[in-house]
Structure formats: C-alpha cells, structure tokens
Specification:
Number of helices: 29
Number of strands: 28
Structural class: alpha/beta
Strand order of the largest sheet: 19-18-16-14-13-12-27-28
Radius of gyration: 32 Å
Strand content: 15-25%
Shape: globular
Length: 843
C-alpha cells in the first residue's frame, strides 16, 4: 500500500471515529508478566540474606542466556520456527532479565539498611552527632492516648545520614535512610495547634541538618529505615545546607496555597492543600477518620487522579489515546505533537517535585511519562502497557515501593479502571443504564472490588458506603483539582487572585468533605472484617460470589431494587428496625456502660433522646457510636470524673452534633495539659465548665444523682487525679447505682467513713473503680454489696485489668460481674420484681 493510500485510509478511519465510539482491541498484556515478576522479586529480596540476591541475579541471567542460545541453535537446525515459539522465548527471557534486575536493585537497597556504621551504632543505642539530608516533608504524629495520658506530639522526618560521629570516635561517611523523631517539647498534644508552630515542620526536602541524637534500631520487618534517631527539638534545627532551588520553589508554592486557603471554611481549608499538593497538615483526626470510613482517602491527599485530570486538560480525554493531540488545551494553543509531549514531561516532573514523590504520585507520573514518550515518537498509546512499564521502572528505581500498600492500592485502582471498568460499563449499558451513569458506576465498582481486600488488611473493616460516596465525590474532584492548581500557580504572583480562585475551589472541596462526613456518620457505614491476608482472601471470595450473583440479578430489575433497598436499610439502620432485630438498646434502659476500650464512658437515661454522660473514654469515635446507637441527641450534663486521658480524650465525640448543657469536672485539674484541652474543647463548643463536689444534688427527668466524692474543701487522702475522681450515687427507675470513677483505696476508705456512707449500703449496681484493678478497699465493697458489678476495660490491655482477685472478691460477695472487654456494651434495666430487681442487656 502506497503512503498516500495509507494516509487516505487513516483519514477515513479518523472521520469514522469522530462519528462513533472507538472500538478497542484486545489489551496488550506482554509487559504485565515482567512487571509482576520484578515486583514480587523486589518484595522478597529486600529482607533476604545478601547471598540470595546474588544467586537470583546469576541464575536468572544464566537461564535467560541458555533460553536464547537454545533458540539460536534451533534457528540453525530448523529453517522455520513458529511465531508463537519466538514470542514465548522472548517473553520468558525478558521476564528473567527483569527478575535479575529487580533482585540486584533490591539487594543493593536492602544492603543500605543492614550495613554500614548506622545500623551498628543503632544496635548499641549510641549517642551520635550526625549530618542528615531531609528526603520528605516533616509531619506531626497524631494525638493518641498512652496509658492515662496523651502521648506528646512529635515531628517525624524521613532523612538520609551522610556523616555520623560517635563521641570520642572519628566521623564516618555513609548513606543510610533513617527516621528522625523530634520531640517538640509540646506537652499539650490535644490542642488543635499542638506542635504546628515548630520550626522543624518548615524544613524542606534536600535541606542538610546537623543533629545530636540517640540511635535506636528500626522496627523489624518491612521498614525501609536503617535506624531511628531521637532528637530533642526544643532548640530548633541546625541547618548546614539549604534546600535545592526546585525545592525552594516548591516550598514557596505550597506555602502560597496554604496562605490562599487560610480564610476558607475549616474542612475546605484542610482538604484543598491535601487534594492539590498532598499537604495534609491541617487535616484533623476526625476528618481523616471520615475519609477512611468511606474509602475516600485517595481524595484526601494528592493521587494519580489529580495528574490524570491535568493531563486530560492538556492533551484531551485519555479514552481517545491515539487522537489525544487533537483535543485539550495544547492543540487549541497551536502546540505541536512533540512539543505537547515535552510540555507534558515538564508537567510530570513539576508534579512530582511540588506534590512530593509519594507512591501514587510516582505511579501516575511514570505512567503518564511513558504515555507521553509514546505520543512523542508517534506510536499508538496503550494505557495497560504504560501502567506495566511504570510499575517495572519504579520498582527497579525504588524497590521499597514493592512493599508499599499505597503503591499497591494505586496500581490496583488504575488497573481496575483500565481493564474491568470498560467491560462492566458496557454490560450496564446493555441493560439500559445511561452511558454516563454506567461509566461512573463501573469505575467506582471496579476500583472498590480490587482495592477492598487490601483495605481490609490495613483496617480490618469493609466500607458499605464507599461506592456511593465515591460517585458523589467524583463530580467535585475535577473542579477542585483544576481550581486548586490555578490558585497554586497564582499565589506567588497575585495573592488576591489566588484567594478568589481558592474560594471557588473551596465549594467543591467542601462538598467532598461533606460527602465523607455524611457517609461516615451512617450507623452502618462499615462492618468489621477479619484483618490480615486471610481476611483479604475471604473478602475476595465474597466479592467474586457477589459479582456472579449480581450478574444474574441484572436480568431482574425488581430483585435489583430489593437488594438496593436491603443495602440501604443496612447502612441507614433505622432505630426501630434495629431494636426489633437486635434488641439493642433495650426499651427501658437506665444506664449503659459503653464499650470504649481501655477507659470509661457511661450514659444515664434522662428522658426521651436525652442522657447524662459520665466520662468520655479515650477516643471520640466509640463514645459517639454508643450515644448514636442509644438515640441520645441531648446531654444535660457531661461529668468528667477526673482528667486522665482514658476518661476525657473522647469528649469531642460527645459534643459532636449534640445539644450539651454543661460539663462538670473535679476540682483537681491534673494533668494540667489535659484539663486545658477539656476547657478548649468546651469553649469551642460554647459549653460552660463547672466544678462539682460532694453534697451536690441534681435531677434530669426521672434521673437523680448525688455527688458523694470529693469533698468541696479537699481531703488529705486526695494525692492525685485518681483519688480526686468524682463519685456519684445515682437513682433511676427504682435502682441505685454507685459510680466510683478511678478512686484508689485511700479515697475509698475515706468515702466509706464519710457522712454519705449510710446511703451507699446495698446498692443495686456498682461501677467498679479503676477498671477493676487490684487496688480496692474491702470495706467499701462490703458496704456497697452490689447485686451487679460492671467493669469497663479494654481487651488485652497491658495493665492486667481487671485483676482476677478483684473479680473473685466481688463474686464472693454475691455480685454478678460483667466486663466490656468480654461482654461488650452493657445496659442496666429494671427487673421484673422479686429477686430480679436489676437486669442487664449486652450488645
């Protein structure tokens, strides 16, 4: 065929393509086996003995050479070799060579972690003076409860040690990846701005520091660090070399975006920098949990979707791969095909530098770069080979990506969109689903089907709202991304314009956050699932079975509607229906001990939709779920017995979306940082805080209570927060309940001798002090003589709560003992009379 005839044929085909959808041929999967083989080899060889990598390299190269030489001899002896045999020989040889390359790369990277002076000194826990180069953006640790206190805020910095010097020894050059844990000196970790003013957070990648630190071994297993450096950061960092010019530019752009979004609503202000450049420093734990619960974490931080949107804006829709240069901004501006590819390459590099080389960013940039190279050379672009090539190149460049869950999720999601989604979309269209809706449903469903088992490994939970939430968020993702990048580009030159564009971007970003919060607030947003790879395999089997059943259901619209209704009921969980099926909560409950792990949280019924809360547990989410399951929307009073974190750190979960009348606390404000955090949370919610003391009596509906400890003027036995706990005698529904907080034996003995002691005799229910620890006063237990003893404690807690001796003593005195770690949430209800004056329901 002549060149002119071929050109006329291609032009006719192009005109035909313009009038009807392009017909896809079979996917080119030739690069998939080498990529997967290299991925698996790198994952195994990173922590294998050094000899394994050498053996694998030699064996793979020799096997490839033998295979190719055997084929050569066949060519000499046989005049004709089938095309399939030639292709198979080439494919196997290429796979073996990729295995050899991956083994060599992984062996070298693994040696960096195991060898050199840094691991040696770490095993001795030596104190060193080190010169390090920052390799990633610093980040703050999340607030967490450690025992009865909040763990202090630290700054985490990934870096490379270039020079290390032990006291009294000569400095040694090296190149070892390490993790710096910088103690900022901030002892108020629950504060919203805790640690955020630290100068360590402003460090840019490529900055060189000189630090005095204590070395410690890194966690065994999959960590990519040779050691951990613990640094006292109160004096600030000592820089010996500034960041590179590209990183300074990226830093100015990121800082400009933060400034441009400063006046946006809270959720948009937190989400937009994360969506555009991966800056999640403003994302609160509550918002982060909402995105995890709805499987929207890929929108919380920058991902490959952002880069895809930018390339589509430049080149046109990726579905028109071979004609991409005829759509998008580039052809409209008169930019040639090869110049467009070069511009796309520059955009890829800038994207990685500004957004930082996270796994999903690297995967997207590499995949896009391979596609751009094919575009520049005039070859037809295919996205599946581009993805395989990107995986192969990235695993060879950085073998640690082979062990990254983020990289795995990114590749699975992209692979699902390229392989499963088109077929599922076509099937939905055949059953009458409109094309746009079919494409959106297929994309969300395919990504969820492949990624859900891996998510279950990480979180031991399966989201039931992931697909609808992703569908709702998808509509806002593109405008938020494009407007966010426009604000990023405008910030250094015209801040007012950047702020105006950021304000526009705040609307779609806020929509995404509202979708996440609404989905996470659903009672059935997720279900617990076995973690680990066994749970992942089980979920994969369930997914396959569901797909097979769903394929048949598509032929029966009424069955589809019934299944959709059933799923909606499972997610929404209307309270009357749940109570009918599960019996929870019991209709006449008087007190519920919530299952909040190692901590305390009680709810006392105070009328329709109302409850008095005594303590809030260590985490906002469990107490919030407990109150929601009880239908509590009004809280006349929150009593915080004392300020230990396992009793107060969950306060924000009580305040979330509820009408709260006030907070009553003990008079001893220790620990001071946690007492201050309580006051900040109350002030932010507009809730007054008062002190309560012995003798105070209150009533709410049929509920009444009397504070019996601590005395208003103090007491000699009160030597710490536990002995200052608020103890209450509660009367409700004909029952008497004694709540002891975390009182220790000295305060318990003083309480047993106090004027209120006569009212404490023979109570119906005892909330056992201090999670059932061994430190109990026998005299107070004899006086209380409860019918039912309830213990709030966490499963497999490190303190041995409850103590076996305490449980035996209570049972010996005739009490039935129940505990949240084994029995779950516990509801106290009035009995039917006679010997059953009190009953309990378990959840």
């Amino acid at each position: 065929m002549s060149a002119r005839t071929r050109a006329d044929t291609e032009a006719s085909a192009e005109r035909a393509d313009a009038s009807r959808p392009r017909q896809e041929g079979p996917a080119d999967l030739r690069l998939v086996p080498p990529a997967l083989a290299a991925w698996a080899t790198a994952a195994v060889m990173l922590h294998a003995p050094p000899g394994w990598a050498v053996t694998t390299v030699v064996a793979s190269v020799l096997a490839a050479a033998v295979l190719l030489s055997t084929r050569g001899r066949l060519l000499l002896t046989r005049r004709r070799v089938t095309r399939r045999a030639r292709v198979t020989a080439h494919a196997v040889a290429a796979t073996l060579l990729c295995v050899a390359a991956a083994a060599g790369s992984a062996g070298l990277h693994g040696a960096d972690v195991r060898s050199g002076p840094v691991p040696e000194l770490a095993r001795e826990y030596a104190r060193v003076l080190a010169e390090v180069e920052v390799t990633a953006d610093p980040r703050l640790t999340r607030p967490r409860v450690s025992g009865n206190r909040m763990a202090p805020v630290s700054v985490l910095i990934e870096a490379e040690v270039r020079r290390v010097e032990r006291t009294g020894a000569a400095a040694r050059k090296t190149r070892a990846p390490v993790l710096l844990i910088v103690d900022t000196g901030d002892r108020q970790p629950a504060a919203p701005a805790a640690g955020r003013g630290s100068p360590w957070l402003s460090l840019l990648p490529s900055t060189r520091l000189r630090v005095e630190a204590g070395l410690a071994p890194a966690r065994e297993g999959g960590d990519r660090f040779a050691a951990v450096l613990r640094v006292d950061g109160r004096e600030g960092p000592r820089a010996v070399g500034g960041p590179s010019a590209p990183q300074r530019l990226a830093g100015r752009l990121r800082a400009g975006l933060r400034e441009a979004t400063e006046d946006l609503p809270e959720d948009a202000r937190a989400l937009l920098p994360g969506l555009v450049v991966g800056d999640t420093s403003r994302v609160t734990p509550e918002l982060d949990r909402a995105f995890r619960e709805t499987d929207l974490t890929h929108t919380l931080a920058v991902s490959g979707a952002n880069f895809t949107i930018l390339l589509a804006l430049l080149l046109g829709p990726p579905g028109l791969a071979q004609r991409a240069e005829r759509r998008g901004l580039a052809p409209r501006l008169g930019i040639s095909l090869r110049a467009t590819a070069v511009l796309g390459g520059v955009l890829s590099l800038a994207f990685v530098v500004v957004c930082r080389p996270d796994p999903s960013v690297l995967r997207a940039a590499a995949c896009g770069s391979v596609a751009l190279l094919a575009l520049a050379t005039g070859r037809r672009r295919s996205l599946v080979p581009a993805l395989a090539t990107a995986v192969l190149l990235l695993v060879l460049y950085d073998p640690w990506l082979s062990r990254s869950y983020g990289f795995l999720l990114s590749v699975l999601a992209t692979g699902a969109l390229l392989t499963l989604a088109p077929r599922w979309s076509e099937a939905l269209r055949r059953h009458g689903v409109p094309p746009r809706i079919a494409e959106a449903l297929a994309a969300a469903g395919a990504a969820q089907a492949l990624c859900a088992p891996v998510v279950a490994v990480l979180s031991a939970r399966v989201s039931l709202v992931a697909i609808p939430c992703n569908l709702l968020a998808e509509a806002a993702l593109a405008p938020a991304t494009v407007l966010g990048f426009l604000a990023l580009a405008a910030a250094p030159v015209a801040m007012p314009s950047a702020e105006a564009v950021a304000w526009c971007a705040g609307w779609p970003a806020g929509w995404i956050a509202r979708v996440a919060r609404t989905g996470a607030a659903m009672p059935g947003a997720g279900v617990d699932w076995p973690g680990g790879w066994t749970g992942a395999a089980a979920l994969g089997a369930v997914t396959v079975a569901a797909l097979l059943v769903g394929r048949r259901l598509l032929r029966h619209p009424w069955w589809c509607a019934a299944c959709a209704l059933l799923l909606a009921l499972l997610v929404v969980q209307p309270r009357p229906l749940v109570r009918t099926i599960t019996g929870w909560p019991p209709p006449d409950w008087r007190m519920v001990m919530c299952d909040v792990g190692q901590g305390d949280a009680l709810v006392l019924a105070a009328g329709d939709g109302a409850g008095v809360v005594v303590d809030a547990g260590p985490d906002p989410e469990p107490v919030d779920r407990c109150l929601s399951s009880l239908g509590v929307t009004r809280v006349p009073l929150v009593v915080l017995t004392h300020f230990h974190a396992d009793h107060v750190a969950g306060l924000s979960g009580v305040l979330r979306g509820r009408e709260v009348g006030g907070i009553g606390t003990t008079g001893l404000e220790e620990p001071a940082d946690q007492a201050a955090a309580v006051r900040r949370a109350a002030a932010a919610a507009g809730v007054p805080v008062t002190r309560v003391g012995a003798g105070e009596r209150r009533r709410a509906g049929d509920l009444s209570w009397e504070v019996v400890w601590p005395p208003p003027g103090g007491h000699p036995t009160v030597e710490g927060p536990n002995d200052a706990s608020v103890a209450m005698l509660v009367r409700t529904g004909g029952l008497r309940l004694l709540l002891l907080g975390d009182l220790e034996p000295p305060a318990q003995r003083a309480l047993a001798r106090s004027p209120a002691a006569r009212d404490l005799a023979g109570v119906d229910v005892l909330k056992v002090a201090h999670h059932g620890s061994a430190y109990q006063d026998p005299g107070l237990l004899d006086l209380a003589a409860p019918r039912l003893a309830l213990i709030s404690t966490g499963e497999d807690n490190p303190y041995g709560h409850p103590a076996p001796g305490t449980v035996e003593v209570l049972r010996a005195r005739g009490a039935a003992v129940l505990r949240t770690d084994r029995d779950g949430a516990l509801a106290v209800v009035p009995g039917t009379g006679g010997d059953e004056e009190v009953a309990v329901a378990r959840h």
